Amino acid sequence: MEMDTGIQAVPQLQETSTQTKWKYPRNACTQYVPREFTDEEKENFMNSQSLKDFINSVALRFEIAVQQNEIMDAFFDDWKALREDESTFGGKTDTHLKEYQSFTDLYYSKDKAVSCINWHPTIYGIIAVAVSERLSFEDRINLSAKLVMTPSLILIWSFSDPIHPQLLMECPDDICCFEFCPSDPDIIVGGCINGQVVLWDISAYAERLQSTRTGGAKHTPAAVNALPGFEDKNVKKTPIVRYCAVSSIEHGHKAPISDVQWLPDYYEISRQGIPLENKNGICVQIISCAPDCSVYFWDIRPPNTATQAMTDRKKSEEKHLQNPQGIPNTFKHLDLTWKPLIRVGLPRIETSGEYSALKVSLKDIFQEGRLHGITDKSGAAKLEKPDGGFDYRMLRVPSAKNLKTQEDISTTFFVGTEDGDLVYSDFKMEKDSDSGKLTSSKPSHCFVIHDGLVTTVKRSPFFKDIVLTVGGWTFAIWKEGVMNGPILQSSASQKKCTVGHWSLSRPGVFFIGKEDGNIDIWDLLEKTHEPSQTQNISTGQITCIKPWIVSSKQHLLAVSDEFGTLHILEIPWTLRHPSSNEKSVTNYFEREVKHLNYSEKRREFREQEKRDMDVEELRRLSEIVHEKSAEQLEEEVQQEFREYLKLEKHILSDMGLIKPAEDTPLPGV
Question: What distances in angstroms separate CA 272 from CA 292, 337, 343, 363, 474, one per listed residue?
Fold first, then answer.
């Protein structure tokens, strides 16, 4: 029997509510006291047999667990590392340098080459470029009259105006190198082609450079607030900044200055070449080198001369003497009278003569004062002016007796030469036993590696003992303290290498500029026998490379060429972001050092083995000679002569000079 029925389920609803019982708040605390064994209980437990059995049973498992922790990090996030590797695909696959901006001036940089570039340390988008004539020494002599009328300039560019430079820094001659002061970016030092050291003070134009970030110099207050019809026509013109001090020609370099650098603000060098504490807290000394076989140390403070009475007598005459309009008096005490503090010579190790320096690299020159615990800036605070900057005329050279010696500062340095040598020397002076004068010590090592001018000697920003050198058709990487040779040396390239620089964000990446306008990008974690990629930047020779970190998301690379053009390139994500195994670069350097030491030991072993074999051979021959009698020696000589006659007869017979039938016995000997 079938029946169709319907069923409807109806939920039963019930409304309820609850309320926690409110009570008055009450302050309460709980203190846990650990339950500890007494000394007697501890001693009994440590000596118990159960503890010993437990340790013996778990000792093997514990050792395995410890080994596993050493082999693999148990807390390493594999998913995060996998995501990081995968993130290189998709939107971050671009590995090429992109043109961000370029700068050139049709008047000031026309037919000139860029000799040096430097980023402004504190103002974003400001970069200084030194241009020089593309002439040989003979052409400079022939065109000297024309070159005198041509201004030598350093152009300061801003990203906001790629057509007009913001400042023009006038120079007494073409500038080969220059650098901003780390403690006061308004002070700039430069090295001229005539061997003079130059100082500029651009503090009067700091506001102009700051305003370029918001739209250029046309928005300066002088131009905005001027009444109609009373505008200053010179506001829109590029101002020319004249140098405020230049060194003495008689006491300076006798060749073009090829490198100039500021010493850090946490130490200074005495006349004996000893590092001392710097109580001023600002950079006061400069190091320069030139192919005249010398390295000079300069001090920007007023000198303490023995003729102080004569100086005091002339003070009244010099009070009314001021620099011309527009030239600051910051370094008036140095102008045309500036002499080097010490001269460090570079005598050759085994022969006479000296090494001609091109580039210099000190171990402690790139570090900041805070890395050495320098926190006392009271000396610098006393020198600050109300309008900013420092009053350098108030500085005085303190007595070396009142300063502490900085034992942790290294006095050794690397020098690249014109002959392709890398010289390792010490700038600490030695007293001559005969004359009693302070003289330079001989370099301890000289490495002949490069086949051309050494154009780059750069320390890694991550490892201060790792040095990159570029010269001729090769480059090399060195480790200070390892004197067997370079830990990495490239093979000779088809085009000459002109310049090199380390990456500021990845310790295993560096850039090499070529004479054909290409840049080789090397990544030691990817390849060590060839560059990871090569990119063409210009049709002319690459002259300078300078990277700069704007932010974590933007890294720029400034590249200049011999045609006076400055290229600003944006570094891709893959070249600026450290990979997950970036720390293995340290292991690579250590491994190469071990390989170098091993090969050196094998070479010494083979040389010693060869010397021992030669000595053994000579000893064996001498023993054989002494054992033979006079009759035996005479018989050997007769036998050799008979063999010679036999060979002579055979040769004459083959040449047809004698016939076999006409052979006559030769007289016996």
Answer: 21, 22, 10, 19, 36
Which residue would you say has higher pLDDT here, 312 or 236?
236
Q: How many CB atoms lie within 10 A of CB 299?
A: 21
Containing 120, the helix (H) or strand (E) segment is none
For CA atoms 451, 454, 458, 464, give the dihedral sign: positive
CA nearest to 157, candidates 235, 217, 236, 232: 217
The reported pLDDT for the residue numbered 90 is 34
- Strand ranges in 205-305 using DSSP code E only, listed in sequence order: 240-241, 245-246, 259-262, 267-269, 275-277, 285-290, 294-299
**Mean pLDDT value across the chain:** 84
Burial of 302 (0-12, 13-18, 19+ CB in 10 A): middle
* Residue corresponding to tokens 């700038």: 427
Q: How long is the chain?
A: 669
Asked if 406 contacts 268 with a C-beta cutoff of 8 angstroms, the reply is: no
Judged by average pLDDT, the poorest of 55-64, 122-131, 142-151 is 142-151
Residue 297 Cα distances to 37, 163, 193, 268, 530, angstroms: 69, 38, 18, 10, 39
Question: pLDDT tens for residues 390-414?
Answer: 888 888 888 777 888 988 999 999 9
Is residue 334 a contact partner of residue 286, using CB atoms and an 8 Å limit? Answer: no
Q: Are 127 and 146 in contact (CB under 8 A)?
A: no
pLDDT digits (tens, 9 = 90+) for 468-483: 999 999 999 999 999 9
Quote the Cα angle for 535-91-95, to 5°: 15
Rounded CA-CA distance 382/403 in Å is 19
| Contact between residue 547 and residue 561 where contact means Cβ atoms under 8 Å apart | no
- Three-state SS annotation for 349-409: CCCCCECCEEEEEECCCCCCHHHHCCCCCHHHHHHECCCCCECHHHCCCCCHHHCCECCCC
Strand locations in 472-603 (E): 474-479, 488-489, 497-502, 509-514, 518-523, 533-536, 542-551, 554-561, 566-570
H or E stretch including 611? helix 584-627
Q: Which two tokens stand for residue 446?
A: 């000289």
Please give the share of the chain, as a percent, with pLDDT higher than 90: 53
Cβ neighbours of 345 (radius 10 Å): 16
What digits encode the pLDDT tens for the residues 143-161?
Answer: 887 888 888 999 999 999 9
CA-to-CA separations, 1 to 4, 6, 96, in angstroms, rounded: 10, 17, 85
Q: How far apart are CA 276 and CA 267, in angstroms?
A: 5
The pLDDT assigned to 94 comes to 75
Q: For residue 455, give the H/E element and its range.
A: strand 454-459
Helices (H) and strands (E) in the chain, counts: 12, 33
pTM above 0.70, yes or no: yes
Per DSSP, the three-state class of 585 is: helix
* Distance of alpha carbon 406 from the chain centroid: 22
- Distances in Å between the Cα of 193 and the Cα atoms of 110, 190, 296 are 19, 10, 15
3-class secondary-structure state, position 460: coil
